[in-house]
Amino acid sequence: MASQSFDTYWRGMLQRGHPRRVATGYQREALNISYRGGMPQSRPGVRPYHAGNLLSADTFGMGWFVTSAGRRELLVATSTSITRIRTRGLDASGALSLLSLPSGERTRTAPAHCYFLSLSAGATLTFVYDGVNTNLKYDGTTLTKMGLGAGLSPAAPTTAAIGGFLSDGTRQYVMTLVSAFHEGDPTPEASKTEVVLAGATETQTATFASPSAAAIDDPQVTHWNLYRTVRDGAAYFYVDQALVGNPITDTLADDTLSAGTALEEFVNTAPPGPWVALCEHRGQLIGVHAGDRNTLFHSYFDPDYMVPEGWPANWTTPVAHGDGDKITALWSLNEWVVIFKEHGIWGLQGAWPDTELIPVVAPNGQRLGIGCASQSSVLQVDNRLIFLARDGVYAIDRFASPEGGLQAQRLSGPIDDVIAALDYGESVSLAYDRRHRTLLIFAKAA
Amino acid sequence: MGNVKLTYAAGDFTVDPTGNYNGASPVDVGTWTNPVDLDNSLLSVGGSANYEGALLTFTTAQTFSGAYVKVSIAYGAGVDTPVMELWTKTGAVWTKRKSITVSEPNLGVPTGILKVYDFFLDAAVADVTHLWVTLNPVGASPPAVAIFRCLHPYKSATVASYADPFAVASGTVDPSGRSRPRSADPSTFTAGMYVTLAYSLDLAPIRDDDEVASALGAWSIWDLPATVATQIDNEEGNDLILFSTTNRVYVLDWGRRKDEWVWEEFNPIYRRLVLGPLPSSPDASEDPSLPATRQPLERHGRLKRFRLFRCTTRDTPTETTPRVRIACEEVDNVASRRTTLRTNARRIETKIAVRGQGFLVTLEHADDDDFRPTFFEAEWDDLGPRVQDSAVTT
Predict the structure, then answer these.
(1) pTM of structure
(2) How far does A320 lie from chain B, in Å, by closest CA?
(3) What is the ipTM of this complex?
(4) Can you give B1-65 as a three-state secondary structure string?
């Protein structure tokens, strides 16, 4: 009589075409088993996070908002709304109101996926994007549009001969719109308001009425700023700020004005389109929008603070534009932004405009000819990115060489047949439990 | 063991309200006005009381496993730090088992909002005669219970409805069972079925397999039907992993051995391990006392008769009728499968006779205990060489 025994570390499942003679420790199947410490045990149980069927529809994405006090709030995207669940075991608070969005953007289209990005610093905000609808931001109470539109054309002012320090001459006026988190771009040059003062005194004033809330059509706008040039000048300087509904009276002498704050133009533009992928990297946001799937857009960068809602139109980096592929995900990894396309992966090093693109390579040094399906197909685990590609699960990390670089290694060899049975692009999310040293890939069979 | 709910309606306990919080010494202040309120559904919006605490006296001593409590606390934000506490009494001694600070940013809840408090214990406590769930009104305001909606205590016991944990539809969200795999063999997956891949690291004390990029982890398949997932650090610094199924959100709980897809409905987790092929590898099956030509692997082509399988598990089963189903079949020959249902124990030994060249042994388990096999051994008889294919034999 012959026998075989096994009494050592278990190595998990081997589900691929293989000879009968296999290394010790593999099992043909392991369903609902976790191999903590090299020994099989049950997977964890599940329990409800909220009471009842309180979400209005099926979910398309989940993310977090962390209040300044540290309270975690779960945000759940259903077909056309965002629901907040405040704490474990608590009833869902219900869908967040969309009434703080511009009137034409309150009706949303059901997306395929919805993603969330919480800022690590600066304003306490979570951005919501899905590649279809207006990009949103959540500040703990209100859901508003990401970015602000340009200022409207200032209305013709009412002038007075006394009360200020303005003299005769021609001056240009523009305005910006201001929310609690951001100041938008100024009135386009073509819509500036030219004012000619001819009161023949040095004490003139010009009073501008506030644009109406209806004309602004963005409930997050609380203030408006007025800027103007000096007489016959071209550069704009800050005049004053007022609540929407309140007028601004310009009384400043040109000398006083030009000694003040200059207008920053072209840096606070709203996002160019619905983001498909978005990441935070070294104090900037970097995104790809649905209208151009091969170009990175970089948010405005200031050494002292983030400007996550300002997207200079020319701060862009083409990524193999015209290669027939499209960017699907962006992740920050150490000094790199890793750019996933469907059929290739690139690393971006440096800060705009001094950036360098290099391909991610396989251990043999060849460029990796695979990518991933979406932003949720990738997860950072320790100092590596894990992602699900068409042919397996990969880990990307820096390779140790003087010239540096990024390389990818395939992890899923033992379960090739399982990978082949999955729907690569459908319903994939990743999670990693550090305490239990377990990576989870939630997927769907094809 | 399963969790069985105790109710006032069934006469499992009586209840009195308590006031003037006094740790370790609850003082009842009368009779609970409408005790049946405590049996309200967790989703209930009607029926309530505003007592500071509920003192339950069990009709008979219980092996207490935990409770759900749904209350609303009114307190001054930033001023008060109210605490919900759960105490048990064994003999003459009151012991505080669990407490949750209501104003804590993550486990707690804003003032005046109803919350379901999870008071399940890590391990059941035997011989509990009394249970006290109370607000500890820390703060000057002072905090107070606005609504005490329901209290569901549980004992640790065999679940009566534990009929057939191996049935296809058992424990599934989709009653048809089609949305979740019943096997980790991808040939059994159907289109649209949700499959979770789990990759466990750090299998051995050596450092080689610690890192995710080592590619030395262990893969397994879980049957969680997740459409999207997310994670964040929980209040203890661990990873809180949530996933969504249709219009509900669930949390992964490593402390539980059952699934709770709907509040207070506990379903067994179906675990399945397929071992083999046996014999499999040289280091697992070589017999140093035999010549090379007689080593098990050199006899792959020989016909064998599988005789006996034995294994040990790490845990002593706690169910009244713990079961494990063991099957053996020839590799790539499902028709040869022989199955036996055994009482689960720390040491299992079963005789199964199957003829073939190599074998697969399947273990199925679905109790409310962990299932941690540590050792297994298979025995077979060597029947001799196959008859060579010829014009006659084929």
Answers:
(1) 0.89
(2) 28
(3) 0.92
(4) CEEEECCCCCCCEEEEEECCCCCCCCCECCCCCCHHHHHCCCCCCCCCECCCEEEEEEEEEEEEE
